[in-house]
Every structure is written in structure tokens, then in C-alpha cells.
Design brief:
Layout (H helix, E strand, L loop, with lengths): L7 H12 L8 H20 L10 H21 L5 E5 L6 H8 L4 E5 L7 H4 L4 H11 L4 E4 L2 H15 L3 E2 L2 E3 L4 E6 L6 H9 L1 H14 L3 E8 L6 H14 L7 E8 L6 H21 L7 E5 L4 H10 L2 E4 L8 H9 L6 E5 L12 E3 L4 H13 L2 H17 L2 H23 L5 H13 L3 E5 L19 H12 L3 E6 L4 H8 L5 E4 L4 E3 L6 E2 L7 H15 L4 E4 L3 E5 L5 H18 L5 E6 L2 E6 L4 H11 L4 E6 L2 H9 L5 E5 L8 E3 L2 H12 L3 H7 L1 H19 L1
Parallel strand pairs: 1-2, 2-3, 3-6, 7-8, 7-10, 8-9, 10-11, 11-12, 13-14, 13-22, 14-15, 22-23, 23-24
Antiparallel strand pairs: 4-5, 5-6, 15-16, 16-17, 18-19, 19-21, 20-21
The protein binds GDP-alpha-D-glucose (GDG).
Length: 705
């Protein structure tokens, strides 16, 4: 509503005391660009799978962002640390992230009331917008949808656009996890039952009956919206009357259209088309005593609305696309007489729960027309049977239960995230690690390579270390107290080429080969390599079938990489390959591992853990640090003593004591360790260097003498 700026303070206080609500004021121009603009001209049509109606306007998008920020700022003013924020609907999809960035302790749930479209439709949003929308939603702890289908669509877009996979709806982000789940919204069931049997509604029913006469009533109630399929519905009714003259004068369609989004062109146009069609049908079939369509363009208060539900033999709900559709559920609840037939579009979320209704495809007038004819002939006992089942279902999963479930799951997910956060290597843990490092005299530092020191790239051969990584490892290794071990699944030739010049210990193929800076490669276990020959053609066959997949042959292992493949296709093919390999290698001493976007087959019995055990047995260390990201690093973490610092990159759980966010964070931790301490700085400083120089000169002169 429009509010005079001078009255805002008074109004804020009034709504706060009277309703416990806190208003957010938007300037009129912003409201137009935000609500009538981006929300209703871009998101609404696109998310309802009507892309031809969507407009893509940069100015509207910018205002959408600004308005989301305004909501964030308003919330920051009033939020307390342990508050739970439940954000509703497509108007505020950026808000969860905006809020989480500023207050990480706030528990956030987001619920989308409209459909989430398939990836093919969602991707029509320009690149930056679609990424920002998904990132925005992922700021929540829980993201809820009406149906399983919408949840799956969302997860698919998150995977394909942001690259985050999921496990049973749990999306693993680098620093936290987010749950996506399905909550089909219910209604306040008792309100409609009690309403229907109330004397006020009963007398309204009598009044309607007197004015409509002895006819069967078909009801249609919606906001004026092109997604609701009102025009198709009328065309279907027109066809029904044409095909069924026996029903003439015996049936009335009560068409209630509730004004909405006045000022959006498509809505104004639709209203005109609707009124023309109503006029045409009434003109074509009606007569002085009978008007087939009784049309009302207005908001109907609760009592007459329930009376309309109660008097109608059939409810005709035919949206082209609808998140849920509560009118259908309210009609079922209000049928206390036990009879009544619901015709509902397959494209409404509610159809998923109301399988006993007559389901139609709203795009086909013929289906609507015959559904009306069928509905009018369903025997009463059958109507009662079907209604009872649907009523029992709606009575169980009411809107209160829906809200309770949603809030509980938000709290549970946020609690899991908190537990996880305590495992993140935060500033305090980093300082303790540094302190321990500085006071120790003999240190073992075990570092994985891919996904730990460098991020993953589509082509694994292209993941060479940059100068930053090389200099970081060199600095660590030049400290004589450090024994730096690079322990990787890479083959020995690659490791040698990339790190051979550094004074470090290299371990290749997860432990099969090892070498110090001074010695040649040592083989840890000699095994005939012929097991590979039978498997290579299978791996190659699977790689040929999946564009972007490739095979890497190492001395003691084979790897089938699929990082470069379509993310959705890759996983199922990888599972199929693992199944095949398991069946084929039953009596061969090999191990099949699902690694990070790779399937690895390697000789059993040697792993990063066996190497770590040997290293630990060779010397006494008073500081041990191991960093890795993948399943193969778990073998390593598992054998380390309790006093060791083990860090897993990413948010997955495992044997590691800590998790850290990403490769950048690994670099930060290692730089912290590689930086000289004050004592070392002093020893490296100009005074100390001069002294050392003098000592050397004196030494030299003395020797000469
Ligand atoms: C969105 C999604 C999703 C309508 N006219 C009158 C009136 N209503 C009430 C109905 C019902 C509600 O408004 C409409 O809800 P719907 O679900 O049918 O549709 P949307 O407004 O588009 O809502 C939708 C919903 O969010 C919930 O998540 O189901 O898919 O689009 O409760 O009774 N109520 C009164 N007079 C009217 O004239 N009193």
C-alpha cells in the first residue's frame, strides 16, 4: 500500500504493537520495477514455464537486488542472535545469502510457493542472474518446495549451474551444507469444515440456491492470472455445452475472478479476453431464464466463498501451471455433505496429493469438456468414497503441520551445520596449530596434491602447480625441522617433472612409489601388472560412451576420469562402471574406488595409510600435519595419532579432525606456517647476517693463519 513518508514512523509503531509485524518501505518507483517488474514480468512467467511471456530487463534486476538488500537491512536492525528467519517466495530469493553473509548464526528457512522450473527453463535467465538466484537461495539452511518434482528441478539446476552435487537433497557447499526438501502446503482444514457447517454459511447457501434455481453448479475461483488457465476453462465449458445439449438449462458455471496485479499489461488484456468469452458463451447458449456462466470480478469474503464451495457439485481447477493450488484443497475440506467432484489440472502441485480427483491436461479443451461430463455422472457413493480418502489426507497434513515440519527441519539442518562449523578450521584453531608448529622441533607435513594444493580442472593433465604453490612448498621444505611429503595418486613421472627440484619426499600412485630428493624411486610392493590388460578396454568403452570422460593408465592403477563430462550423466555411468568392475575383478587383488569425479582401480594392500605408517615408524615427530580432500586421504587420516592435525578440504565428513573450505584456505594455512617467526626473522635480519659474515671472515682468516 502507499504510505506517506511523514506517517511511516507512526505506522511502524502501530503495526508492530497491533500485529507484531515490522514493515519495510519501498519507494514507489522501486516497487514498480521490483514487484510489477522483475517479480511478475520475469520470474512469475518463467517459473510457471511460460518463457515467451518473460522479459529480461537489467534495470528491473538491479532493483530486485536492491529491494532484497533493503529487506536484509531491515532484518539486521531487529534480529537477535538465535532467531530463525523464514523467508517466503520468489520475491526474496537473494535474501537468504545476503542475510547469511552478515549474520552467519541466523537460522534461515526459505519456501518457494510457486513451481521451480526445469533446468532448461531456468537457464533462460541471463548467466549472472541465474547464478545469483541459486547462490541467494543457498544462503538458507533449508530450501523448501511444494512437490518432489520442483525439489529435483532445483537440485538439477544447482548441479548444472553451480556444480554442487547432493546426497538425498543435502547439498555440500565448500563451507556448509544446505538441505532441499519437499513440503506440500496444506490448509487450515478445520476452518473450512467449521465454516461449512456454520449457520452463516448455511443461510448464504440457501440464498445462493434461491437465486441460482434448481441447477447443478460448477465452481471456478482464482486470482486473475494467465497461469490459472481461466480462458481454457471457459473454452472447455463452451465445448461441453456444445457437446451436451441435455445439460442446457440444468447447469451453471460460477466463475469468480479475483482482481490481481492490476497494471501489468498481460493481466489487463486477459481480463478483456475473459469478459468477451463469458459474453460469447452466455449469448450463444443462454436465454431469459438461464445464464450458463455467472461471472464475478471481485474479492469474495470468507463466508460466501465457503458457501460457494458448499453449494457446488463440481470444482473446476484447470491451471496451466500452479505451485500448489489451495482452492482445490479448500473445496475438498468444505464438502461436509460428503459428495462433490474435483476436476484438477495435472499441472497443479495439488494434483500430486489428490489422485482420486478427475485429472485433466488443461491445454486440451476436449479433456476439460469430457471431464465435466464425466464428473456430472459419477454416482454419489463413488463421490463419497473418493472424497473421504482425500479429506483424510488433507486432515492429516494441515497447514499447521506443514509449518511445524518446515520449522523443525530448518532447526535440525541449522544444528547440523553448527556442529559442522565447530569442525571448521577457524582462526582460533589456526592460531593453535601455528603455536604448536612453532614450538615443535621435528615435523612431518603430509600434503595431497589435486583438490588440496591446486583446484580441480576438467583435464587432469593441465593441473600443473603454479609458482605460488612451488614457492610455498619450497619455503616449508627449506626449514630443516620440516619433513615435507607430497603424497598423491599421480604417477611418479608427473610428480618428478613438477616437484623433482624441491627438497621433499614424493609419494606416487597412493603409496606404490616413493623417493627422497637425493634417491631414486623405490617400489613399495612388486606386483605383476597384467591385471590391467583385461580392464583397460572396459574403461575405454565407458569413456567412449560418455563425452568428456577419459582413461589414465598408471603403473599400478587405472583411472577413469569424468570431471569433464556432463555432471548429471557422469554419476550414473560411473556407478554402472563400478558395478561392472566389481563383477569382473571378484578374484583379482584390486580395489575399486569412487574418487572425486573419477573411478580408480588399483592394487589392494597399499594406500596412503600404509605409507604414512612407515613414515611414522621411521622417526619421532612432535608435530604432524596432513591435508587432503578425497576418499584416498581418509586412509591417511585414519592412521595418524590423536595429536596430529588432519584437515579435510571441503565440507564432507571423515576421519580428519578439521575441515577447511577450499584450496585458497589451504594456501593460507601453509603460508602462515611458512612465514618466518620473529625469532627466525631476527636470525635472518641484517644484524644477524653481519654477525654471521664477521664470524665467517674470522674463521677464514684463522684457518689461513
Ligand atoms: C500461490 C501459488 C500456491 C482466492 N480468491 C478469494 C480467496 N482466495 C484464496 C483462496 C486460497 C488463496 O486465495 C489462493 O491460493 P492458491 O493456492 O489457489 O493460489 P495463489 O494465490 O496463486 O498462491 C499457489 C499458493 O501460493 C500457496 O503456496 O498454492 O500455487 O501460486 O486460499 O481461498 N479468498 C477469499 N476470497 C476470494 O475471493 N476469501
Amino acid at each position: 500500500m502507499t504510505v506517506d513518508v511523514s506517517k511511516q514512523r507512526v505506522i511502524t509503531e502501530k503495526v508492530l504493537t497491533e500485529h507484531g509485524a515490522y514493515p519495510v518501505y519501498l519507494p514507489q518507483e522501486e516497487m514498480d520495477q521490483f514487484y510489477l517488474g522483475f517479480c511478475n514480468k520475469t520470474i512469475w512467467p518463467l517459473f510457471h514455464s511460460l518463457p515467451s511471456l518473460a522479459v529480461y530487463d537489467e534495470a528491473m534486476w538491479q532493483v530486485y537486488r536492491r529491494v532484497n538488500e533493503r529487506f536484509r537491512d531491515a532484518l539486521l536492525d531487529i534480529l537477535k542472535p538465535d532467531d530463525l528467519v523464514w523467508i517466503h517466495d520468489y520475491h526474496l530469493m537473494l535474501l537468504p545469502r545476503l542475510l547469511k553473509e552478515r549474520r552467519s548464526s541466523i537460522q534461515i528457512g526459505f519456501f518457494l510457493h510457486i513451481p521451480f522450473p526445469s533446468y532448461e527453463i531456468f537457464r533462460l535467465l541471463p548467466g549472472v542472474w541465474r547464478k545469483e538466484v541459486l547462490d541467494g537461495l543457498l544462503g538458507a539452511d533449508l530450501v523448501g518446495f511444494h512437490t518432489y518434482e520442483y525439489t529435483q528441478h532445483f537440485l538439477q539446476s544447482v548441479l548444472r549451474i553451480l556444480g554442487h552435487g547432493h546426497n538425498m537433497g543435502q547439498i555440500l557447499l565448500p563451507d556448509r551444507s544446505v538441505k532441499a526438501d519437499t513440503f506440500p502446503m496444506g490448509i487450515d482444514y478445520d476452518r473450512y469444515v467449521n465454516g461449512a457447517i456454520s449457520p452463516e454459511v448455511q443461510s448464504e447457501v440457501a440464498r445462493f440456491r434461491a437465486s441460482l434455481g434448481d441447477v447443478r453448479v460448477v465452481l471456478s475461483v482464482d486470482r486473475l492470472d494467465y497461469t490459472k488457465g481461466i480462458l481454457n476453462r471457459l473454452e472447455g465449458f463452451d465445448l461441453f455445452l456444445q457437446q451436451n445439449p441435455k445439460w442446457h438449462s440444468k447447469i451453471v458455471l460460477v466463475l469468480v475472478v479475483v482482481p490481481s496485479r492490476i497494471g501489468v499489461d498481460q493481466y489487463d488484456l486477459m481480463k478483456r479476453q475473459l469478459e468477451e468469452l463469458v459474453g460469447r458463451i452466455n449469448g450463444k447458449y443462454g436465454n431469459l431464464g438461464w445464464m450458463p456462466v455467472v461471472y464475478q470480478y471481485r474479492h469474495v469474503p470468507f463466508i460466501p466463498l465457503v458457501a460457494l464451495y458448499a453449494i457446488s457439485d463440481v470444482a473446476l481447477v484447470t491451471p496451466l501451471r500452479d505451485g500448489m493450488n489451495l482452492v482445490a484443497k479448500e473445496y475438498i475440506a468444505a464438502r461436509t455433505s460428503g459428495t462433490g467432484v474435483l476436476i484438477i489440472s495435472e499441472m497443479a502441485g495439488a494434483a500430486k496429493e489428490l489422485g482420486e480427483a478427475v485429472l485433466i491436461n488443461p491445454n486440451h479443451c476436449g479433456e476439460i469438456a469430457s471431464a465435466i461430463a464425466v464428473a456430472l455422472e459419477i454416482p454419489e457413493e463413488e463421490q463419497v468414497r473418493r472424497l473421504r480418502i482425500m479429506q483424510a489426507r488433507l486432515q492429516r497434513y494441515t497447514v499447521h503441520r506443514w509449518a511445524r515440519d518446515f520449522v523443525q527441519e530448518t532447526l535440525d539442518t541449522a544444528a547440523t551445520t553448527k556442529k559442522f562449523e565447530t569442525q571448521m578450521l577457524g582462526n582460533v584453531a589456526q592460531m593453535l596449530l601455528l603455536k604448536q608448529y612453532r614450538k615443535s622441533l621435528k615435523r612431518l607435513i603430509l600434503l595431497d596434491y589435486d583438490g588440496t594444493l591446486v583446484p580441480f580442472v576438467a583435464d587432469h593433465a593441465q593441473a600443473q602447480p603454479g609458482t605460488k604453490v612451488i614457492s610455498l612448498i619450497r619455503r616449508l621444505a627449506e626449514n630443516l625441522a620440516n619433513h615435507v611429503v607430497l603424497i598423491s595418486g599421480r604417477d611418479r613421472h608427473t610428480l618428478e617433472a613438477w616437484f623433482g627440484s624441491l627438497p621433499i619426499y614424493l609419494v606416487a600412485e597412493h603409496g606404490f612409489f616413493a623417493k627422497t630428493a637425493e634417491t631414486e624411486w623405490r617400489i613399495m610392493k612388486v606386483i605383476p601388472g597384467d591385471w590391467k590388460h583385461g580392464l583397460i578396454p572396459i574403461l575405454k568403452l565407458f569413456a567412449d560412451r560418455l563425452p568428456g570422460a577419459s582413461v589414465e593408465e598408471k603403473e599400478y592403477s587405472l583411472v577413469w576420469h569424468y570431471r569433464g563430462a556432463d555432471p548429471e550423466q557422469g554419476e550414473p555411468v560411473a556407478h554402472e562402471l563400478i558395478d561392472n568392475l566389481n563383477a569382473l575383478t571378484g578374484n583379482v587383488d584390486v580395489q575399486i574406488m569412487q574418487a572425486n569425479k573419477a573411478v580408480e582401480v588399483r592394487v589392494a594392500g597399499i594406500n596412503k595409510g600404509t605409507t604414512a605408517r612407515e613414515l611414522l615408524a621411521e622417526a619421532e615427530y612432535d608435530f604432524i600435519l596432513a591435508i587432503g580432500d578425497d576418499r584416498t586421504d581418509e586412509d591417511l587420516f585414519a592412521v595418524l595419532p590423536d595429536s596430529a592435525y588432519s584437515i579435510k578440504v571441503g565440507s564432507a565428513r571423515g576421519h580428519a579432525k578439521y575441515n577447511c573450505k577450499d584450496v585458497d584456505e589451504v594456501h593460507r594455512v601453509l603460508s602462515l606456517l611458512a612465514a618466518p617467526s620473529r625469532k627466525e626473522e631476527f636470525h635472518e635480519g641484517p644484524l644477524w647476517r653481519t654477525l654471521r659474515f664477521l664470524v665467517r671472515i674470522t674463521d677464514h682468516l684463522t684457518k689461513k693463519r
